[in-house]
Design brief:
Aspartate Aminotransferase, domain 1; Aspartate Aminotransferase, domain 2; four-stranded antiparallel beta sheet; alpha/beta; about 475 residues; 3 domains; Arc Repressor Mutant, subunit A
Length: about 475
Amino acid sequence: MDTIWSPDLIEGQGPKYKAVMQAIRLRIADHDLTPGDKLPPVRDLAWHLGITPGTVARAYTLLTDDGTLTAEVGRGTFVAQPDEKAPLFADVPLEVDSATHLSEAQSWHVNLFSPHLPSVGQATLIRGLLAEVAQDPPSGMMHYPTRTGGAAARAAAVAWLDGAPIGSFGADDVVLANGGQNAILLIFQALLKGRRPAILVEDLAYPGFRRAAELLRADVIPVEMDAHGVIPEALDAAARAHDAQVFCTSPEVHNPTCGFTPLERRNELAEVARRNDLQILEDDCYRLGQAQAPGYRMIVPERSWYISSISKSITPALRLGMAVAPKGRAGVLRRTAEYSFFGLATPLTDLTAKLLVHPELPRLMDAARKGIGTYVRRAVNILGGYEIVWREDVPFLWLHLPEGWRAGAFVQAAEQQGVRIRAAEEYACRDARTPHAVRMAVNAGVSLQSFEAAIERLRVLLDNPPEQIGV
């Protein structure tokens, strides 16, 4: 029996016939099986794997039905030719992951706190690659993580970040982290000095900046914004008044307002950073499409730190983030990571080295982005009569509430209707004045019908502010 048919491929939970189907698909994707190759007879493969012939026969039948295999009477079962079969990860209707966000696929309760990608084949790919890593881990299973052992994963991260406009960088400039939030904390640890350091953030900003700063006993100073991002004069005044060390910003996709900082404004802010010797931390974790302007690491390469993660483009389950240091500054960031947790677990770096350069990944990411766009458009169709900021390639929407609603009251009313959303206050520093607005994340872990029904319930609330309810 060919060595590609290991009994290990059907270990674990779940129906055995599905494990056989998955193994065959992955071997086709890896070119271990090519069009025209003959599969083992049902009884031979069943004996080799230690399962019943009926289990193998069911897997063969289902794969024949979907066009992956073809059966010829008297000759056997073969891998279908390309023009005879559907793609390995076909463009089928979006599936939902019913384990997400404590919501069932068809559910009245819908959690719109955090974005959740549609399932378009990522899980199948990742399960297969995890099986490969488990069977033959390149880094072994009995050693501490090492810089050399993680080289392939960092090189894969460089390839994955190829479209990011952050200037020249290589594997030695990249440090892998346990998600984007961990990358923020590592950069703060590498940069902040003194007994009471200060960081500057947008007056509405990703809460993770504040939480990481609080862990390091740093002061967080909000800086006034307008429609194009932080106001340069306000940044200059804050930097001088507080002797700040780091400016944290999300110029491509501002969280939570869905805004964008144009190049002219970025250049002005970069000049302020130079004058005040500010380091810039650019958070690019929410961008799903192409960048619209050069990143700060391209504009001011000597003082810009860039972070990204796979949470909003592939899956948040793996907790894989990456930080790119300025040229010549990677050493301090790498030491911070090594002193904190020695490095990512070796099975994760082995998986990263395979996943981020897999030939199927770009298509899956594009399918997930299009799936997010479908949910966004449905929400806009329902809420289009209200002041809403949105982009098809951004997994959340920013809604300015009509007169009669305050953000806190609207969030409570929405939760009573089974919909969880975030108020603007969650993105502001304590005691800050905030707009009456809410952020609604796209949760493609529930069905499109459930998502639409949740947005419809929000519209009913918007149409009936408190002073009108019950009239």
